[in-house]
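[job 0412] stage=complex_fold ligand=iron/sulfur cluster status=START
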Amino acid sequence: MICQTVKPGVECVFMKKAGCGYNGGKCHSVVDECTGCDRIEELPSGQYCSVYPDPRLKWKNGTCNFATHVKKQSDTPKATLNALKASKRKAAGRM
Ligand code: SF4
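[job 0412] stage=complex_fold status=DONE, emitting structure tokens
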């Protein structure tokens, strides 16, 4: 249904006939960590995320996975691959 709270006119899965079904009955505004993200929407009621209703929760356990202003680190998969190769070499007796 169409939002009737902080994003009027925007289609939303949380909007029901009885009102917004999201926690607190409306979207929550962005947090400091969101500064610079392209997904921030400027609305008359404030700044909101275009893809997630509660930005604070996206940053609670680390970096928001939807953030456009944060570079992802790609070191971890490479290290895992090398550990697998080392394990196979060790098993084959080629260390
Ligand atoms: S995508 Fe993440 S970082 Fe960007 S505005 Fe939304 S919650 Fe904030």
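Residues 89 and 95 are 6 Å apart (CA to CA).
[job 0412] exit 0
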